[in-house]
Amino acid sequence: MASTGINTMQALFAFSTVLHRAPSPSYSSRRLLNSIAPKLWSAVIIGDNCSEKKRTICKSHGSRRQGMAVASSSFASSNNNLGSDFVVTEQIEGKSVLLSSPSFLVESQGEEDDKEVSFLKPTTWRASIDFKWIRENKEAVAGNIRNRNSSGDVEQVVRLYEQSVSLSQEIDKLRAERNAVASAMKGKLDLARREELIEQGKQLKEQVAELEGKLAVLSERLQQEGQRIPNMTHPSVPIGSEDVASIRKEVGRQREFTFPVKDHVELGLALDLFDFEAASEVSGTKFYYLKNEAVLLELALINWTLSQLLSKGFLPLSTPDLVRSTVVEKCGFQPRGQNTQVYSVEGTDLCLAGTAEIPVGGMYMDSMLPEASLPLKLVAFSHCFRTEAGAAGAATRGLYRVHQFSKLEMFVISRPEDSDILHEELISIEEELYSSLGLHYKTLDMSSEDLGAPAYRKFDIEAWMPGLCRYGEISSASNCTDYQSRRLNIRYRPATPAVAAAQQPPKSKKVKTTLPPLQFVHTLNATACAVPRMIIAILENNQQEDGSVVIPDVLRPFMGGLGLIKPKSR
Asked: What CA–CA distance (Å, rounded) separates 372 from 36?
């Protein structure tokens, strides 16, 4: 069995090396390795004594496992055909046995003869979470989690962080001892003393390797738990469910009709603007065709809104529809969670973007921006795709809740001290746009339970939709502070402060300039125009008794001067 195990290990190493050392391993290659690796592990570890369970949990029966160790130079030198790609090994009956590759981590549970080892699939990316700050503000973080009704566990995060700090300190101590032993061996020593130091160094090396293996698992668990902690909350945010959201502003009033009001579906079908039936046959429910003047209205909304934002200094973008799942996760969305709103492309690591916020944030991933470029104001046109899992009832009728739509999204990258002011600016821009269209709306300061994980504060705008006899959300504006930038790794370097002339040294002396440390930016996003709901609001509020619909004045130049959508003559 030993020979079979080594051959299997060699084969796996050769396969793993090709995949992991490639410049950019494909998703299918990584998936293939992840699918076959657990079966190879069970063959390598203890053959018939290892039963494969869900997530590959192998339990020893009667064999005493002597602790965990990281594959090190000594292991590599004694197993030249394996190398050092493999992360974790374990001593079983006196033999080094492979437990995981870079795609897996190992977690031990239980004691002595009943020790259980499970393969922990590590995260594919790491957020720069300030765990020290979380520990120092544990009570505030715990209260924030309760207020948001979140699933994060701050006690677990603090406990794992303290364990990892303690373990790191222990490893540093052992490394210092090992360095001291190495220094002691440089002098003239008798044979007995040299052998004693060699053995001591070997033991220290093994101890460090064992603790590094434990630290790798601990760090992975800490990262996974830390990513469940939501952003902190602005002190002015109402605490509770959606019902306690406060009204920030109300503009206009509900129009009084002298005739029976129709909803946008009745109006659109009568004016030959939509075709839901054909779309259902072609694509499924919650899809639609826009026809005739509705197409002109969509383009007019996009072009008019874009022209307004360009005049305010926003830079235009058109974004990809497909993004990597890691970028979706870094922006605070769960592409493969329960009841996810994200479409995933089977067999790939790609997802359909639900909002331009995701590809725009990803565009600046791993960037270091000059302070002079901030704030960076962008407006992105994109198609948005959402599963609308769990949505049902009258609220989903017609265009209100669909799987695909066009949208203009504002996205801002700023210095931390500017984000609150810019948040006010974004919501003011939205209010200005919707006032220009003649809509009656109210702006809400959303409650703590309705913020989602990324938002520090969020304003929603709801427009009156008379055909639906209720207010409907048409936009939102969120300040995500550094929640997304810590995951996307978007930073800036503050400008170097000027040195007073009296403190400047003579010109003949060279002075080493100390640059200020990098800081994470703040990110904000706000809806400028979500086309389907804007069409709903315009059709229902501007309908006439004869079934026609008046086009808002500001849109007419973008519709070739058309001011009225009339019923089609038969």
From this structure: 50
Which tokens go with 128?
Answer: 């720069």
Q: Which helix (H) or strand (E) holds 328?
A: helix 325-330
| 468, HSE (Cβ side, Cα atoms, 13 Å) | 24
Q: What is the pLDDT of residues 103-161, one digit of tens each?
A: 445 444 444 444 444 455 666 789 999 999 999 999 999 999 999 999 999 999 999 99
**pTM, to two decimals:** 0.78
By C-alpha distance, which of 480, 506, 500, 172 is closest to 333? Answer: 480
Q: Do you know the residue count of the chain?
A: 570
Closest CA to 540 of 408, 400, 392: 400
| Helix (H), strand (E) counts: the chain | 15, 24
Cis, bond preceding 375 (omega within 30 deg of 0): yes
CA triple 534-536-542, angle to 5 deg:
95
d(CA 79, CA 83): 7
Residue 56 gets the label, from left (phi > 0), alpha (psi -120 to 50) or beta, of left
Question: What's the chain's Rg over C-alpha atoms?
Answer: 30
Residue 96 has a CB neighbour count (10 Å cut-off) of: 17
The answer to whether 417 and 208 are in contact (CB under 8 A) is: no
